[in-house]
Amino acid sequence: MKDVTSAYIAKENASTRKPVELYKIWYGTTYLYYTNGDVTVAFDDGDGTGSHNYTPATISRGSAEFDSTLDVNVMKIQFSAVTEPTVKYIAQNPVAIVWIQISRLFRDQSPLEASVIFIGQIKNANFKGTAVEAECVGFEHFLSMPIPILRYQLACNHQLFDAGCTLLSTDYDVPAVVTLDSTKTILASATFDTYADGYFIGGLITFGEERRTIVAHVATLITIQYRFQDLANGNTVTAYPGCDGDISTCKDKFNNILNFLGFPWIPDENPALRVP
Prior knowledge:
It is a single chain. The protein has helices at about 5-15, 85-90, 140-145, 245-250, and strands at about 20-25, 30-35, 40-45, 50-55, 60, 75-80, 100-105, 115-130, 130-140, 175, 180, 185-190, 205, 210-220, 220-225, 235-240. It is mostly beta strands. It has 2 domains: about 5-145, Pnp Oxidase, Chain A (Roll); about 175-240, Elongation Factor Tu (Ef-tu), domain 3, CATH 2.40.30. β3 and β4 form a beta hairpin. The protein is globular. About 25% of the residues are buried.
């Protein structure tokens, strides 16, 4: 992060200030650029991708705090859920990492420069009426994560389709043309009925860049946690099966027992607590 110039500092210390904030949000290969100002701001933040237009949006945030003890800093940001497509990239579950960078800029400065005041990821989001409040955490969040990646447990330590599992998602994808109920959380397709009930539970269903967790599967019906923003009757989605990590599922459903990384024969009774 570069130091700001004396010109920027003079603006910051001036009695009359006109700063706006720039919000860069990225998820995978998708980048969103917003400002809380009233007009579009064209700005190059130096990330090597050139200048981008930050469009006006209804955004407000809490204070940015810094803790010398390295406790995780939390910032809450409120987005409009009806005018901007931000929720599409935040409200899906399971959530891939959604990064956010907030910068402050003075529009009456020439040339433009911005000071980064927060970089982190969106940890979770809560809906409040027509808006969504996102809880963001700074980089310190990664310092609080447990380091061991394997656990001595009954269930498999791998995630379905990861490198350790070795199975390919492309071998299990199921395209299906769907119709929706009034809530748009129940998707119907005759394709789903060609698989045993429960086959897709715990799996994912994708539409474009969005994905949702499948919480129920019976006959032709699949239920998801949250509706897709733009899915309509007659659209094609792609469904993927779920895996509960049990050794029998690995063997019978996926025929992948050689790559199972769990410990199913851990005694479920503590011998030290046995009473003669």
